[in-house]
Write a structure and sequence with these properties.
Length: about 550
C-alpha cells in the first residue's frame, strides 16, 4: 500500500528578486505575511566577480555595463543555503516565483537545456552551469551602448512612433531587442551557438524549473520585440533587430502569460533542499512589474521605486493608440492578457545619492539627512542635476549641472547643505515632470507608494511628498519585488479565472510616513517650470 503523504497544513510561498545589487528571497505564508528573508549582496558576498553596485563597467567604454550570469547562479547557490539554514520545513513551500532586473539578457549555449534537465543534486549549480552560457557577460539595463541598433530597429519598422505603437516603447538602448541586435552583429559566433535567450527573470525561473522558462508578457514588454496587443513576437521587430535568417523567434521561445504556472520544481531542488515534488514554479517577471503587483495600485496611486534605478509607475486605464510620448507601456503582470501599466525609469538613482553622500556627508545617511533638513524647501532657488551615467530620461550624458536662482550655471554650490538638497529636489522634480508626461496627475486622493532601498529614508521621502504635493506611504518591507512574487504565486495557484484582486485582495498594507507641507505646491510648481527649461538646455547641449 502506498504511504499516505501528510496533508500540507501550512502552505508557504517563496519569492525572489534578482535585482541589480543583490539577490533577495522572501518566504510568506498563505496570508502573505513575511516569515523569513535571506539575501546575497553581489559586491560584498561575491567579491571575486569584482562588481561595483552589482555590475561590471567596461574600462574603455563607460556605456558598456554587464554582469556575469554565473555570478547570479552562484548567488542562487548561496541564497538557497541560507534558506536551508532557516530551518523551516522547505517541503511546505507550494510555489516559487520571482522578479529580475528588467531588460538584461542571458545567452544559453547549445546543450544548456540538457544541463538544466539533468542537474546533479550532489553538486553546486555554479559548478554545473559554468559552461552553460555562450555570452559570459550579460548586458544589463544600465548598458547604453546600442544607440546604432536602436536607430536601425526604429528605421526598419517605420520610425520610433511605429515601434512604440507595436511594442509599447520607442527604442531604448537597454531594451533587449537592441542588445540582442548588438550581439548578433558583433559576436555572430556566440549568437549562433546560443540555444536560448532569456531575460534575467526567465533565466532564474529556468533554473528552478530545470528547463527553459518562457519570457512572461510583462517583462517581455521591455524588449522592443513583443507586440503588446497580441502578446506574440513581432516578425518585423525580430527581423529589424537581427535578420530574417537569425532564428531569433526560436531562440526566444514562446512568451507566456505572467500568471502562468510553468511546471513543478526541478528534481535538483527536491533532492538537494527537500522541496516537495509538487511545488509549482510560476513565471518570473520584471522587478518593476513585480513591485507593481505587490503594491495593488489604485487608479489615483503613483508608485515610486527608489532602488538602484528610480522608477515611477502607474496603472493604465486604456492603451494609448500611439504609445506614450516617453516612457514605457508594459503588460500588467496581474492580468497580463488584458491590462497594462505605464512606467518611466531613471538610471541615476541610489548610486548617485550614494556618491553625493560620500562627497558631502562622509558616507553617512544620518549626516546626509541633517544637511538636507538644514536647508529650506526650494533651496534658495538653486537647482541641481546629477548624472553619473548617461541618463535614460532625459537623454543626457554624464556630468553635474548646478544653477542659481537666476538660472546661471555654477561650478559649485556655496555649501554641502545646498548640494544635498539640490540633488534630492532635482531628482524628484525630474521624476515628477517626466511622470506627468506619461499621464501622472496628482489630485486630493492621490497617494505616493514608495518602495526600494531609499524608501527607508523618511527625510528623502518628505522631499518626494513635497515635490509631488501628495502624501507618501510605504510597505513594511522596502523590497516589494520579492513580495510581489509571493502575491503572484498565490494568484497563479488559485482557481482558474479568479482575478488577482479576488485572490490577493488589498493585502498591500501601507503606512503613511509623510504629508506634503502647505507651502510645497507653490514652491515646487514654480520650480518644476524652471527645472523643465533648464533640463531642456542640458539635453540640447548633450
Ligand atoms: P536594487 O533592488 O535595485 O538592487 P535596492 O532597492 O535594494 O536596489 O536599493 C539599494 C539602494 O538603497 C542602495 O544603493 C542604497 O543607496 C539605498 N539605500 C539603502 N538605505 C538607504 C537610506 N537609509 N537612505 C537612502 N538610500 C538608502
Ligand atoms: C526599468 C529598468 C530598471 C531595472 C532595474 O526599465 O531598467 O528599473 O528594472 O531595476
Amino acid at each position: 500500500m502506498m504511504e499516505e503523504k501528510p496533508v500540507n497544513t501550512n502552505p508557504l510561498y517563496l519569492g525572489f528578486d534578482l535585482s541589480t545589487q543583490s539577490l533577495k528571497a522572501v518566504v510568506t505564508n498563505e496570508a502573505l505575511e513575511v516569515l523569513y528573508e535571506a539575501s546575497v549582496n553581489f559586491d560584498k558576498d561575491l567579491p571575486e566577480f569584482r562588481t561595483n553596485g552589482g555590475v561590471n563597467k567596461d574600462e574603455r567604454n563607460s556605456k558598456i555595463v554587464s554582469a556575469q550570469p554565473i555570478m547570479w547562479v552562484k548567488a542562487l547557490d548561496i541564497v538557497m543555503e541560507k534558506i536551508r539554514l532557516l530551518e523551516f520545513p522547505i517541503d511546505t513551500i507550494v510555489g516559487i516565483s520571482g522578479a529580475g532586473q528588467q531588460h538584461g539578457s542571458v545567452y544559453w549555449r547549445r546543450g544548456a537545456q540538457k544541463m538544466l534537465q539533468t542537474l546533479d543534486s550532489g553538486k553546486f549549480l555554479h559548478d554545473q552551469l559554468a559552461f552553460a552560457f555562450s555570452v559570459t557577460h550579460s548586458p544589463v539595463w544600465m548598458d547604453s551602448s546600442t544607440t546604432e541598433y536602436c536607430d536601425k530597429l526604429e528605421k526598419f519598422v517605420g520610425g520610433p512612433e511605429e515601434l512604440a505603437k507595436i511594442t509599447g516603447s520607442k527604442a531604448y538602448e537597454r531594451f533587449t531587442g537592441s542588445q540582442i541586435s548588438k550581439i548578433f552583429h558583433t559576436k555572430r559566433e556566440a549568437y549562433n551557438s546560443t540555444e536560448r535567450i532569456s531575460l534575467v527573470s526567465s533565466f532564474a525561473c529556468s533554473i528552478f524549473l530545470g528547463d527553459y522558462a518562457g519570457i512572461d508578457y510583462s517583462d517581455g514588454s521591455g524588449m522592443n520585440l513583443l507586440d503588446i496587443r497580441t502578446k506574440t513576437w513581432d516578425a518585423k521587430c525580430l527581423e529589424g533587430a537581427t535578420s530574417n535568417e537569425s532564428n531569433l523567434e526560436a531562440k526566444l521561445g514562446m512568451p507566456v502569460p505572467s500568471e502562468s504556472v510553468l511546471g513543478t520544481v526541478s528534481n535538483y531542488f527536491v533532492e538537494r533542499y527537500g522541496f516537495s515534488p509538487d511545488c509549482k514554479v510560476v513565471a518570473f517577471t520584471g522587478d518593476n512589474p513585480s513591485s507593481f503587483a505587490a503594491m495593488a495600485l489604485g487608479p489615483t496611486d503613483i508608485a515610486v521605486s527608489l532602488g538602484t534605478s528610480d522608477t515611477v509607475f502607474l496603472s493604465l486605464d486604456s492603451l494609448p493608440e500611439e504609445g506614450l510620448g516617453e516612457g514605457h507601456i508594459f503588460a500588467n503582470p496581474m492580468s497580463s492578457r488584458e491590462h497594462y501599466m505605464a512606467m518611466v525609469c531613471f538610471k541615476n538613482g541610489s548610486l548617485t545619492r550614494e556618491r553625493v553622500r560620500r562627497d558631502a556627508a562622509d558616507r553617512s545617511w544620518k549626516i546626509f539627512n541633517e544637511l538636507l533638513n538644514s536647508t529650506p524647501r526650494g533651496n534658495f532657488g538653486n537647482i541641481g542635476m546629477y548624472y553619473d551615467l548617461w541618463e535614460i530620461i532625459p537623454k543626457v550624458r554624464n556630468g553635474d549641472h548646478r544653477f542659481n536662482k537666476e538660472g546661471s550655471k555654477l561650478n559649485k554650490f556655496t555649501s554641502k547643505e545646498v548640494e544635498v538638497r539640490a540633488l534630492i529636489e532635482g531628482q524628484f522634480l525630474s521624476r515628477r515632470i517626466h511622470a506627468e508626461r506619461i499621464g501622472c496627475k496628482t489630485s486630493k486622493e492621490s497617494k505616493i507608494l514608495a518602495t526600494g532601498g531609499a524608501s527607508g529614508n523618511e527625510d528623502i521621502l518628505q522631499v518626494l511628498s513635497d515635490v509631488f504635493n501628495a502624501p507618501v506611504y510605504v510597505q513594511d518591507t522596502s523590497s516589494s519585488a520579492d513580495l510581489g512574487a509571493c502575491y503572484r504565486i498565490k494568484h497563479a495557484l488559485a482557481e482558474e479565472g479568479s482575478s488577482f484582486m479576488e485572490v490577493v485582495g488589498n493585502k498591500a498594507s501601507f503606512k503613511k510616513v509623510c504629508d506634503p507641507n502647505r507651502d510645497a505646491k507653490e514652491i515646487y510648481d514654480n520650480m518644476a517650470k524652471r527645472f523643465e527649461v533648464l533640463e531642456k538646455s542640458i539635453v540640447q547641449g548633450s
